[in-house]
Structure to design on (287 residues):
């Protein structure tokens, strides 16, 4: 199909089983007419729409995402909401950054002193460099590529690390299994392999009063909170029903999250009425 109309695109997408055919057709209509037929064919063959068009919308911004790189999910906006009250003037480190969506949303809304982003996948850091032109984006295994001078200075450490248990990766939607790298999904036997390493090392990188915030699933949250507690962090489970997200937050010092620092829905999307809850509720999203 050379120059398909919007109606023709909707029809093709519906036939291919796309649930949001009308929305996706509108996005494809933004692409150059000459390319549209080929892009539609890729989408119909099962490639994620974000890879096909080269961008993903996250927290109100369009970010570059290349084929083969993890596509940020809306629930990860919960990490942004948790981090924002701590980010003004802060040193912000996004670990396992992917395209750098969380760091971008934080830097878009506050004035952090420094933003650093790390990922092991060079394709991901290529995207992150485009999305975070003012940040230090480095490729490597967790803290390994970071300068030791950064130790003790990180005020906000955020991570959406891989957390799908190895045995559950095969049950993920085809789009993820076929088009996102396993290194972005597989969190080891209990899903906590990468998070465990982050928690173990975090205290030596955090500043006094700094926070560590890690996205996880309802089932893993109590274990992750216990890991943080074992490292001397004051841990809390933050459930964000608004975006179906769940974050475990650890404070380096013994204070609990102050009420004024609890995340508010309005910090990410002005006008959104619901407010995330802070507590031990474990009824939230799964990977
Ligand atoms: C679930 S994806 C999330 C990406 C990004 N945080 C987001 O929410 O869009 C996990 C990311 O962790 C990265 N990753 C996996 N193991 C890593 C490691 N040992 N060190 C650094 N990054 C790692 C993957 O390459 C992938 O980009």
């Amino acid at each position: 199909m050379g120059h398909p109309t919007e109606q023709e695109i909707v029809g093709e997408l519906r036939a291919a089983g796309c649930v949001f055919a009308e929305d996706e057709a509108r996005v494809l209509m933004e692409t150059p007419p000459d390319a549209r037929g080929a892009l539609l064919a890729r989408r119909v063959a099962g490639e994620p729409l974000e890879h096909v068009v080269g961008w993903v919308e996250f927290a109100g911004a369009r970010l570059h995402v290349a084929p083969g790189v993890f596509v940020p999910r809306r629930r990860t906006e919960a990490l942004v909401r948790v981090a924002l009250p701590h980010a003004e003037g802060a040193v912000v480190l996004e670990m396992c950054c992917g395209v750098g969506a969380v760091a971008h949303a934080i830097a878009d809304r506050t004035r952090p002193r420094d933003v650093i982003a790390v990922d092991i996948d060079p394709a991901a850091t290529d995207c992150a460099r485009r999305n975070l032109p003012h940040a230090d984006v480095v490729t490597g295994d967790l803290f390994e590529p970071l300068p030791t001078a950064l130790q003790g200075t990180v005020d906000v450490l955020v991570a959406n690390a891989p957390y799908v248990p190895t045995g559950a990766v095969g049950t993920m939607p085809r789009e993820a299994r076929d088009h996102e790298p396993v290194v972005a999904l597989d969190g080891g036997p209990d899903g906590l392999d990468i998070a465990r390493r982050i928690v173990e090392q975090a205290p030596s990188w955090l500043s006094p009063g700094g926070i560590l915030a890690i996205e996880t699933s309802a089932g893993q949250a109590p274990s992750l909170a216990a890991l943080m507690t074992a490292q001397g962090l004051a841990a809390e489970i933050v459930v964000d029903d608004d975006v179906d997200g769940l974050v475990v937050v650890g404070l380096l010092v013994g204070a609990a999250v102050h009420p004024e620092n609890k995340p508010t829905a309005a910090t990410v999307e002005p006008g959104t009425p619901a407010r995330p809850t802070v507590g031990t509720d474990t009824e939230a999203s799964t990977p």
In short: The radius of gyration is 19 Å.
